[in-house]
C-alpha cells in the first residue's frame, strides 16, 4: 500500500496560505491612503479567481468573461437605482444569482462548441450584453452608465466611505475570503479533479463515463456567479457602473492577470492581480505607452516561454530542485 | 468592402493556418500607417503606396511569423491568444511612440474624389473603386487558392501537415508565405479603409470584433464565404443603423451568435475545415 | 454478453464495418485480429458508442444499447483502452486512476469533500496501482513516464471502472516485452465472469491469452474459432498470419 501520497495531502491547509490574508490585513493598517486602490486589487483578484475556475481548471477558453462581471455590476446598480434596494449583502447574492443564471443559460448552449467557435461565441455573448446595456438606456443609463449610486451600511454597521474606502476594503476582503473558500473547496474536490480531467483529455473523460457537459456547465455557472459577485463589489465600492465593465478590454485584462500569475493554481490570481495592478498603477500613469509596450512584450514572452506564469516559473524551479535532491 | 479586404487576410491566416490570430487588426493598422506615411513624407502616389504597404507589412510579418508564430502552431488556443494580444499591445505602443497618438488621414488622389454618375445613381467614386478592388481581389484569391499549384499545396499542408511534408512540400516556408500574404492583404485593407474606418493606434482593438465576426460567419478559410459575409454584415450594419439606430449592432451580434451555434463552421464553411 | 447484429459503418463510400454479427460471451477471453486497416479500432468505437453505426445494433445482455451515449454505456459496464494513450498527461498517475474510480463510484460530481479525503477512492486506486506495478510512479505525472509505463496506466484506468466487458485496443503495443507479463497478470486477476476482448498484433500474446479468435478483414468477419482452428485455417494464414506462425 502507498503511504500518504501527494494527492491525499494536497487539500490540507499549509502555513503559507495564511500569508496573503495577513498581508492584506496588514496593508489595511500600513497604507490607509491606498485603500481605494487596494479595493480594486481585491476585486480583480476575485474576478481572476472566477476565471481560473473555467480557464485554469476546466480548460474552457473564453474571451467573454466580463459578461458576468458586468451582469453582476449592473444587477446591483439597477436594483439600487430603480427599486431603491441598497442593502449590499443581499445585492451580492442577487448579482450572483443573475450572473449565475446567465452563465447557466449561455453555458448550456455555448459549451456544445469548442475551440475557435467557442471563443467567438463567448465574445459575442459579451458584446450582446454590452449592446443591450447600451440600448436600454432607461434602465441602465446607456453609454453614461449609472453614476452616484449609494448603498446602505454593511450589516447596518459600517457605512461606505467615499474618500478612504476603509469599509470597502474590509468588505471586499471578507467577500473575497468567502469566495476563495468556495473555490478552494471546489478545486480540491472530486468535482475539481474531474474538471482537470476534462481539461487534460476530453476523449478519456468520455471513456470513463463522466457526464462531461454537465460538469462543464456547472463549472461555468459557478464561475459566472463568482464573477457576478466581483462585478457587484465593483459597483458597490465605487458607487457607479458604466459600459466599461462589459468591455473586451476587461475580459482580456483579467485573462492577462490570470495568465501572468499562473492559471490552474489557486494563488495565481493573487500574484497576477497584485503584480499587474501595481505595475499599472505605477507605470501606466507616468508612461502609458511604455506600459503598453512592456505589457505586450511580457505577454509574448509568457506565451512563448513561460506558459504557467510567475507561479509556474517557481513551480518548475522547485520541481527541478526536488529532482536533483532525489 | 473594406471589411472584406481586411477580413479575407484574416481568413487566410486563421482559417487556412488554424492559428487564432487576434493581431490581424494590428497588421491592418501597420499597413494603414505605412501607406499614409509614405504618401505624406515621400510623396508616393496612392497606388504605389498601397503596394509599398503590402510589401512592407508582408516583410515584417515574415519576421514575426518565423520568430513568434511558428513555435506556437501546435500550441493551445490560449497561448496563441496571449501571443497575439501581446503583439497588438506592442504594435500600438510602438506606433504611439514613433508616430504619435493622433488620428492619421489619407490624402486621396484627385481621380478618386467626388461623385461618379452611374446613370441611375450618383455614388462616391472612392466607394465604387473599393467595390471594384474588392471584387477583383476576391476573384484573384479564389483563383489562386482553388486553381493553382501553390493553392493546392497550402490546402494540402493545412489538411495533413505530415503527409504534405513527406510529399516534399516545405510546409514551414509555405506557411510563412501564406502568413505574409494574409498580413499583406490586411495592410491593403488598412490603407484602403483608413478613409472610412479612421486610423489611429486604437484601431486593432476597435475593429477586432468585426473582423472576427466576418470570418466566423463566412467560414474559416473560405474566400468566397468571407466575401459574402462581409457584404452581408456591412449591408446589415448600414441598413439597421438607419432604420433602427440603437439596436443595429445588437442585432448583428445576436445573429452571429445564433448562426455560429447552428453552424459552427460558418455560413459558407464546409464541415470539418477547422 | 455483448453482441452486434448486422453492424455497418460507412465513411462516405468507404465501408469500414460490413454486416458484423459478433458475440462476446460472459467470461470470454476473446481476441480480434486482422491486417492494418481491417476496421478493428472502428469496431471498438462502434461498441463503445464513440461512433454511431450506419446500420445494425449493439446489444448488451440482450438489451439494445445502440442509441445510448458513450458515458451511459460505461455506466452499464463497457470499458475500453485506447490504441494510442489517452491519459490526463499533466496529472499524476494516482490522479489519473482516481478520476476513473470516482466516476465509477458516482462521486465524480461531488463538490464539497476533498478528493484527497475519499478513502474508498484512494484505496481502490492504490490497489490498482499496486497491481500494475506502478507503485513507485504514483506521484509522478504522466508526461514524466516512459511510454511503456503510461500503457499500464491506460489499463489501470479501464480496470478502475470495474467493467463487465473490457475492450483492449492493442494494450501491449509500446510495452517492452519484458513487462508485458504485468499486463497478462493483471488481466488474469480479473473476475472470471468479465468478458475481455483484445485487439493485438503480437501473435505470441494472442495465443497465450485468447480462448477464441475472430479475424476481421476489410470490415467483415473473415473467420472465427478457437486458437487451434484459426492457426490451422489456411486462408487466414494466407491473408494475415503468414510468417508469424510459420516461423
| Global morphology of chain C | globular
Please tell me the total number of domains of chain A: 1
Residue stretches of chain C low in confidence (pLDDT < 50, at least 5 long) are: 243-247
The average pLDDT value of chain C, as a whole number, equals: 83
Helix tally of chain A? 15
Strand/helix succession of chain C: EEEHEEHEHHHEHEHEEHHH
Biggest sheet descriptor of chain C: 6 strands, mixed
State the end-to-end distance of chain C.
36 Å
Helix and strand composition category of chain C: alpha/beta
Termini gap of chain A: 21 Å
What is the 3D shape of chain A?
Answer: globular
CATH C-level label of the domain at 2-87 and 161-246 in chain C: Alpha Beta
Instruction: Give the amount of beta strand of chain C, in percent.
Output: 15-25%
Q: How many β-strand runs of chain C? A: 10
Would you list the SSEs of chain A in sequence order as H and E?
HHHHHHHHHHHHHHH
Oligomeric assembly = heterotrimer
Average residue-wise pLDDT of chain A: 80
Name given to the CATH homologous superfamily of the domain at 2-87 and 161-246 in chain C: P-loop containing nucleotide triphosphate hydrolases
Task: Specify the biggest β-sheet of chain A.
Answer: none
Number of helices of chain C: 10
Summarize this entry quickly:
The complex is a heterotrimer of chains A (326), B (274) and C (247). Chain A is mainly alpha-helical and 326 residues long.
Describe the structure.
The complex is a heterotrimer of chains A (326), B (274) and C (247). Chain A is an all-alpha fold and 326 residues long. Helix content of chain A is 73%, strand content 0%. Chain A has 15 helices and no strands. In chain A, α4 packs across α5 (88-110). By secondary structure, chain B is mostly helical. Chain B has one domain (2-201). In chain B, α1 (2-17) packs parallel to α5 (125-147), α2 (24-42) packs across α9 and α5 crosses α6. The longest helix of chain B is centred in the C-terminal third of the chain and has 27 residues, at 171-197. Chain B is globular. Chain C contains ten helices and ten strands. In chain C, strands 6-7-8-3-9-10 form a six-stranded mixed beta sheet, with helices on both faces. In chain C, strands 2-1-4-5 form a four-stranded antiparallel beta sheet, covered by helices on one side. Chain C is globular. Chain C has a domain at 2-87 and 161-246: 3-Layer(aba) Sandwich (Rossmann fold). With 247 residues, chain C is of the alpha/beta class. The longest helix of chain C is centred in the middle third of the chain and has 13 residues, at 93-105. Chains in contact: A-B, A-C. At the A-B interface, α6, α12 and α14 of A face α4, α9 and α11 of B.
Amino acid at each position: 500500500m502507498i503511504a500518504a501520497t501527494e494527492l491525499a495531502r494536497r487539500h490540507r491547509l499549509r502555513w503559507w496560505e495564511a500569508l496573503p490574508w495577513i498581508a492584506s490585513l496588514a496593508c489595511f493598517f500600513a497604507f490607509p491612503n491606498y485603500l481605494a486602490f487596494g479595493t480594486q486589487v481585491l476585486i480583480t483578484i476575485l474576478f481572476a479567481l472566477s476565471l481560473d475556475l473555467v480557464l485554469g481548471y476546466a480548460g474552457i477558453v473564453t474571451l467573454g468573461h466580463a459578461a458576468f462581471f458586468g451582469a453582476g455590476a449592473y444587477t446591483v446598480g439597477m436594483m439600487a437605482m430603480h427599486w431603491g434596494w441598497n442593502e449590499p449583502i443581499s445585492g451580492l447574492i442577487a448579482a450572483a444569482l443573475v450572473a449565475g443564471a446567465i452563465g447557466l443559460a449561455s453555458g448550456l448552449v455555448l459549451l456544445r462548441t469548442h475551440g475557435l467557435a467557442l471563443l467567438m461565441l463567448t465574445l459575442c455573448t459579451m458584446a450582446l450584453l454590452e449592446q443591450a446595456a447600451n440600448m436600454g438606456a432607461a434602465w441602465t443609463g446607456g453609454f453614461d452608465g449609472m453614476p452616484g449610486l449609494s448603498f446602505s451600511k454593511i450589516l447596518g454597521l459600517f457605512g461606505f466611505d467615499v474618500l478612504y474606502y476603509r469599509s470597502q476594503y474590509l468588505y471586499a476582503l471578507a467577500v473575497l475570503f468567502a469566495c476563495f473558500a468556495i473555490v478552494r473547496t471546489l478545486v480540491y474536490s472530486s468535482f475539481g479533479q474531474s474538471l482537470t480531467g476534462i481539461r487534460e483529455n476530453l476523449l478519456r473523460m468520455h471513456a470513463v463515463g463522466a457526464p462531461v457537459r454537465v460538469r462543464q456547465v456547472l463549472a461555468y455557472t459557478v464561475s459566472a456567479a463568482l464573477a457576478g459577485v466581483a462585478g457587484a463589489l465593483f459597483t458597490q465600492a465605487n458607487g457607479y457602473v458604466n459600459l466599461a465593465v462589459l468591455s473586451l478590454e476587461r475580459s482580456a485584462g483579467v485573462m492577462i492577470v490570470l495568465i501572468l500569475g499562473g492559471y490552474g493554481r489557486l494563488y495565481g490570481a493573487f500574484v497576477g492581480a497584485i503584480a499587474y495592478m501595481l505595475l499599472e498603477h505605477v507605470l501606466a500613469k507616468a508612461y502609458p505607452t511604455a506600459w503598453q509596450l512592456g505589457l505586450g512584450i511580457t505577454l509574448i514572452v509568457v506565451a512563448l516561454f513561460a506558459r504557467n506564469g510567475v507561479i509556474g516559473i517557481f513551480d518548475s524551479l522547485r520541481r527541478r530542485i526536488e529532482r536533483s535532491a532525489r | 468592402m473594406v471589411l472584406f479586404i481586411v477580413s479575407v487576410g484574416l481568413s487566410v491566416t486563421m482559417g487556412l493556418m488554424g492559428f487564432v490570430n487576434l493581431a490581424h487588426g494590428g497588421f491592418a493598422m501597420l499597413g494603414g500607417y505605412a501607406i499614409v506615411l509614405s504618401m505624406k513624407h515621400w510623396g508616393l502616389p496612392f497606388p504605389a503606396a498601397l503596394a509599398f504597404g503590402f510589401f512592407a507589412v508582408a516583410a515584417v510579418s515574415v519576421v514575426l511569423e518565423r520568430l513568434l508564430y511558428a513555435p506556437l502552431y501546435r500550441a493551445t488556443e490560449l497561448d496563441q491568444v496571449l501571443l497575439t494580444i501581446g503583439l497588438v499591445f506592442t504594435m500600438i505602443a510602438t506606433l504611439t511612440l514613433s508616430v504619435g497618438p493622433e488620428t492619421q488621414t489619407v490624402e486621396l488622389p484627385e481621380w478618386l474624389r467626388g461623385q461618379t454618375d452611374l446613370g441611375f445613381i450618383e455614388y462616391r467614386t472612392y466607394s465604387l473603386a473599393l467595390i471594384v478592388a474588392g471584387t477583383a481581389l476576391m476573384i484573384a484569391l479564389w483563383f489562386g487558392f482553388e486553381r493553382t499549384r501553390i493553392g493546392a499545396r497550402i490546402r494540402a499542408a493545412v489538411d495533413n501537415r505530415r503527409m504534405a511534408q513527406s510529399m516534399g512540400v516545405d510546409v514551414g516556408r509555405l506557411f510563412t508565405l501564406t502568413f505574409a500574404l494574409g498580413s499583406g492583404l490586411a495592410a491593403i485593407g488598412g490603407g484602403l479603409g483608413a478613409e472610412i474606418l479612421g486610423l489611429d493606434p486604437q484601431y486593432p482593438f476597435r475593429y477586432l470584433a468585426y473582423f472576427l465576426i466576418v470570418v466566423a460567419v463566412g467560414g474559416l478559410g473560405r474566400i468566397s464565404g468571407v466575401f459574402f459575409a462581409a457584404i452581408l454584415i456591412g449591408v446589415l450594419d448600414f441598413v439597421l443603423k438607419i432604420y433602427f439606430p440603437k439596436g443595429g449592432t445588437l442585432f448583428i451580434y445576436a445573429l452571429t451568435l445564433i448562426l455560429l451555434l447552428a453552424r459552427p463552421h460558418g455560413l459558407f464553411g464546409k464541415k470539418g475545415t477547422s | 454478453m455483448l453482441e452486434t447484429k448486422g453492424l455497418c459503418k460507412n465513411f462516405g463510400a468507404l465501408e469500414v464495418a460490413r454486416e458484423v454479427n459478433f458475440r462476446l460471451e460472459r467470461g470470454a477471453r476473446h481476441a480480434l485480429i486482422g491486417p492494418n486497416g481491417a476496421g478493428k479500432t472502428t469496431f471498438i468505437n462502434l461498441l463503445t458508442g464513440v461512433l454511431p453505426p450506419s446500420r445494425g445494433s449493439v446489444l448488451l445482455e440482450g438489451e439494445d444499447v445502440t442509441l445510448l451515449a458513450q458515458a451511459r454505456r460505461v455506466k452499464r459496464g463497457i470499458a475500453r483502452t485506447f490504441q494510442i494513450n489517452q491519459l490526463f498527461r499533466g496529472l499524476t498517475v494516482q490522479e489519473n486512476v482516481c478520476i476513473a474510480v470516482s466516476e465509477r463510484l458516482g462521486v465524480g460530481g461531488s463538490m464539497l469533500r476533498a478528493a484527497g479525503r475519499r478513502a474508498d477512492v484512494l484505496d481502490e486506486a492504490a490497489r490498482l496501482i499496486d497491481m500494475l506495478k506502478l507503485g513507485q510512479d504514483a506521484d509522478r505525472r504522466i508526461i514524466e513516464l516512459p511510454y511503456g509505463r503510461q500503457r499500464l496506466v491506460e489499463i489501470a484506468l479501464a480496470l478502475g471502472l470495474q467493467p463487465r466487458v473490457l475492450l483492449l485496443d492493442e494494450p501491449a503495443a509500446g510495452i517492452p516485452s519484458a513487462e508485458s507479463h504485468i499486463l497478462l497478470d493483471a488481466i488474469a486477476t480479473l473476475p472470471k465472469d468479465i468478458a475481455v476482448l483484445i485487439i493485438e498484433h503480437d501473435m505470441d500474446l494472442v495465443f497465450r491469452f485468447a480462448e477464441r479468435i475472430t479475424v476481421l478483414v476489410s470490415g467483415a468477419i473473415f473467420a472465427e474459432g478457437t486458437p487451434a482452428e484459426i492457426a490451422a485455417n489456411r486462408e487466414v494464414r494466407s491473408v494475415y498470419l503468414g510468417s508469424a506462425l510459420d516461423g
